[in-house]
Amino acid sequence: MNTRIWAASALALTLSQSTLAQAPAPSPTPSEVSVSVDVNRPGPVIDRHIYGQFAEHLGHGIYDGIWVGEGSKIPNIRGYRTDVINALKEIKVPVVRWPGGCFGDLYDWRDGIGPRSKRPVRINVHWGGVTEDNSFGTHEFMNFTELLGADAYVSLNVGSMTPLDSARWLEYMTSNEKATLADERRRNGRDKPWTVKFLGIGNETWGCGGNMSGEYAAEVNARYSTFVTAPAEMGMVKVASGATGNGGDYKAFTEAMMKGGGKLQALSFHYYAMPAGGKRGPATGFDESLWTRELDLTRKMETFVSDVSAVMDKYDPDKKVALYVDEWGSWYDQEPGSHPGFLLQQNSLRDAEVAALSLNIFHRHTDRVKMTNIAQMINVLQAMILTDGPKFLRTPTYWVYHMYVPFQEATPLPASVATPAYTSGSFSMPQVDASAARGTDGKLYLSLVNTDPVRSARVTTNLTGTATGRILTGPAMDSHNSFDAPDAVSPKPYSGRSENGRLVFDLPARAVAVVAIP
User: Fold this and answer.
1) Which of these is catalytic: 204, 288, 294, 335?
2) CB neighbourhood size of 315 (10 A)
3) Do 421 and 396 touch, CB atoms closer than 8 A?
4) Which distant-in-sequence residues (6+ apart) come within 8 Å of 446 by Cβ?
5) Which of 4, 21, 152 minimizes the C-alpha distance to 479?
6) Residue 439 has what pLDDT?
7) Residue 302 among the catalytic residues
8) What is the 3-state secondary structure (H, E, C) of 392-452?
9) Beta bridge partners of 517
10) What end-to-end distance do the CA atoms of the chain give, in Å?
């Protein structure tokens, strides 16, 4: 990454934040909101894989983001950035999807094995036309997931790789036999086979993965699924490439896959909160209309998940096929001066709200949604972490994931919210969103999101006792962290109070809060 470009961009963003995105003075009268949690109606557990990540060979997502090599002056653990590893462990990353994304649709797994000095250099035609030296390949990725304590989600290239090649890649990774491919893996430094917990049968087959119709994509899934196998005791889940909410008839594509895709175990879905065919706008320096538009686009995820689930119910009423939203997040104009096609964008308080609203939606659909993978983990789109050489920062989105850790494997509880609307221009939405769950530690966890960038809320609940936790907010809609001020937006202590035997919370404007109630 060009440090001078980033510095100039950061200066421009700081100036724009002070002039364009500074929130108006708060309203003196908070909105009255009530939240009622039904502790007697537990839902299906919030699978920890809902907090999954996506890492593609795109921009500085892999190189300089995750991988710097053993000889780097940047502190590292066997080539992996120490600061990144430690930060990702804090949010208990459960699964990482790799190598793509569109990059994976031209990926030849053999390019990424063997001595790094002898690996071929290719052109990354999807993302910037830059060279790819393949120094981060199968061994580096699989070892990375083990270092994190995360499950591996490997996406197969069904657009340009044969079923035979796919089967051989899986055998290379998972076989423990005295066979040619397993012996090749051993010669390359890995004796014990890896566990591939999730296997994606292609990526975006409706687009960069082959421009397929739903019917043809279903036939491709059935064909490839027949030939790619792993030892039964591994319990590998095969994931069919499903529809998108960003164009096309997603219901028809889903129906075609459910009808003709073979014996499905899981079906993917992609949706980015960006306008169809319109200007995306900047990641910072935006006005209230773009704040509201982005949150409105985010809330459409509820409709997409409900609609896709309804189609799946027709063919799978017992809900044995899982829905994986394995690409999602905000997508803005990339930072001025950054390399074309690298999709570098800042990450602000608005993105924290995108993350929290999306996770709350997934919590409401745990009967189907068993995994999601935000795009992407480092330096790309809605990233957890930004790096620039030795510099490192956690984004507001990272801190939402940090605050939401207790929801992993928790049991969701219905939360009814009576709230006024937040309206701006042509957009209107509930001012306050909430999610509640019983954690594995027995505590009740409650998240509260105030979508209004101006008006605070007084939230009265039907809960009793004490409540302590953390809150994330900032002085402006686009408040964000920079390398000069990496902790400008970070969680602060937060608590409720008891009034007439009920817990009450003073929720500031543009805020995300999570509390624990013993």
Assistant:
1) 204
2) 14
3) no
4) 35, 37, 415, 434, 435, 436, 461, 463, 467, 514, 515, 517
5) 21
6) 98
7) no
8) EEECHHHHHHHHCHHHCCCEEECEEEECCEEEECCEEEECEEEEEEECCCCCEEEEEEECC
9) 444
10) 46
pLDDT digits (tens, 9 = 90+) for 198-253: 999 999 999 999 999 999 999 999 999 999 999 999 999 999 999 999 999 999 99
Under 8 Å between Cβ of 507 and 461: no
Q: How many residues does the chain have?
A: 518
Residue 213 CB coordination number (10 Å)? 14
Separation in Å, CA 363 to CA 209, 404, 431: 29, 11, 19
Short-list 210, 206, 113, 112, CA closest to 158: 210
Token pair listed for 263:
């014996």
Token digits for 98?
């790799």
Asked if 184 is an active-site residue, the reply is no
514 sits in which H/E element: strand 511-517
Question: What distance in Å separates the CA atoms of residue 365 and residue 368, rounded to the nearest whole number?
Answer: 6
Measured CA to CA, the distance from residue 318 to residue 320 in angstroms comes to 6
Calculated CA dihedral for residues 184, 189, 190, 196, nearest 10 degrees: -80
- Output the pLDDT for position 10: 43
Q: Which residue bears the tokens 């101006």?
A: 454
- Give φ, ψ of 23 to 5 degrees: -70, 145
Assigned token pair, 124: 């990354």
Phi first, then psi, for residue 146 (nearest 5°) are -65, -40
Task: Indicate whether 272 pLDDT > 70.
Answer: yes
DSSP, collapsed to helix, strand or coil, labels residue 28 as coil
Average pLDDT, the chain: 94
pLDDT of residue 25: 53
Determine which one of 132, 255, 294, 327 is catalytic.
327
Instruction: Give the whole-angstrom CA distance, residue 103 versus residue 99.
Output: 7
Tokens of 144: 């990375």
Q: What is the CA radius of gyration of the chain?
A: 23
H-run or E-run covering 458: strand 457-461
What is the band of 6 on the pLDDT scale with cuts at 50, 70, 90? very low
Across 179-207, average pLDDT:
98
SS3 string of 224-271?
A: HHHHCCCCHHHCCEEEECCCECCCCCHHHHHHHHHHHCCCCCEEEEEE
